[in-house]
UniProtKB/TrEMBL annotation:
Active site: Y133 (proton donor/acceptor), K161 (schiff-base intermediate with substrate)
Pathway annotation: Amino-acid biosynthesis; L-lysine biosynthesis via DAP pathway; (S)-tetrahydrodipicolinate from L-aspartate: step 3/4
Family: Belongs to the DapA family.
Residues given in the record as pyruvate binding sites: T45, I203
Pfam families on file: DHDPS (PF00701)
The organism's place on the tree of life at top rank: Bacteria
Enzymatic reactions: L-aspartate 4-semialdehyde + pyruvate = (2S,4S)-4-hydroxy-2,3,4,5-tetrahydrodipicolinate + H2O + H(+)
Description of how the protein assembles with itself and partners: Homotetramer; dimer of dimers.
UniProt-listed PANTHER family: 4-HYDROXY-2-OXOGLUTARATE ALDOLASE, MITOCHONDRIAL, DIHYDRODIPICOLINATE SYNTHASE
Protein name: 4-hydroxy-tetrahydrodipicolinate synthase
Length: 295
């Protein structure tokens, strides 16, 4: 079962929007050396909407090769067309991926029964274990706990990334989904409380810039060391918040470049570089968390 700090790794790009594969390999080394418990490639933070399928597969293959079995690699595999999602899952499985992150369908506005059938069909037909990804703030589609409970007992469904930040959902999920089902937060700001209340880990944006700290936070929270976990989370809270002053991954790419983890903070339209008005707040947050040395 997946647990701990699973980094939603960025896809580094140059200023022309071309993928920087050497930088991606260096990021994998940074996360392995820093103790991250897993890597999630080509999710929302990895800019999946603007990568074509060949680029998507190439990024995942690069992360797999660089990780070399040292940490689990989860690949973004979802979509709003069930048939195409299954086809992508099968291609990812052929690369060696064993678990995929499958986002709720966007724009279609399926019912809860439609969501159930969508994920159950993918789990059954694709051969790739599915981590459900509920992020209604982006998709306009909310996978309700009762539907998650139904899916948790279906073949091929192994966990959920719950990105609503609503901690009231966690007890219902824990009670209904069974012990082998991974409950992962998708919201860094509430992830510590999520784990202290029985969740298993977090798929983290903050871990892109604070890999060792997020790994330590998860270890403390999962061990029930609440006082230490909450204290560390308080140090990181300005970073959790600053990384969402504009749409993810705009701020985290800027922060990675500012910390020297990547050379450029390149993005693809319609995303644009971080507005200059936010640079000071993000620098302050990184400095307060002792990620950036004071000048």
């Amino acid at each position: 079962m997946l647990s701990g700090s699973l980094v939603a790794i960025i896809t580094p790009m140059n200023l022309h929007g071309e993928i920087d594969f050497p930088a991606l390999r260096q990021l994998v080394e940074y996360h392995v050396a820093s103790g991250s418990h897993g890597l999630v490639a080509v999710g929302t933070t990895g800019e999946s909407p603007t990568l074509d399928e060949q680029e998507h597969l190439a990024v995942v293959e690069t992360v797999l090769e660089a990780a070399d079995g040292r940490v689990p690699v989860i690949a973004g595999c979802g979509g709003n067309d069930t048939r195409r999602a299954i086809a992508l899952c099968r291609r990812l499985k052929a690369l060696g991926v064993t678990q995929g992150l499958s986002v709720t369908p966007y724009y279609n506005k399926p019912t809860q029964e439609g969501l159930y059938r969508h994920f159950a069909t993918i789990g059954e037909a694709s051969g790739l274990a599915q981590i459900l990804y509920n992020v209604p703030g982006r998709t306009g589609c909310d996978l309700q706990p009762d539907t998650v409970a139904r899916l948790s007992h279906q073949y091929g469904i192994c966990g959920i990334k719950e990105a609503t930040g609503d901690l009231q959902r966690l007890p219902r999920l824990k009670a209904a989904c069974g012990t082998g089902f991974s409950l992962l937060s998708g919201d860094d700001a509430s992830a510590c409380d999520f784990m202290l209340q029985g969740g298993h880990g977090v798929i983290s944006v903050t871990a892109n810039v604070a890999a060792a700290q997020m790994a330590r936070l998860c270890q403390l929270a999962l061990a029930g060391e609440a006082e230490q976990a909450l204290a560390l989370n308080q140090v990181l809270m300005p970073v959790h918040q600053a990384l969402f002053v504009e749409s993810n991954p705009i701020p985290v790419k800027w922060a990675c470049a500012r910390l020297g983890l990547i050379a450029d903070s390149g993005l693809r339209l319609p995303l644009t570089p971080l507005s200059a008005s936010w640079h000071g707040q993000l620098e302050m947050a990184l400095t307060q968390a002792e990620l950036l040395t004071r000048a």
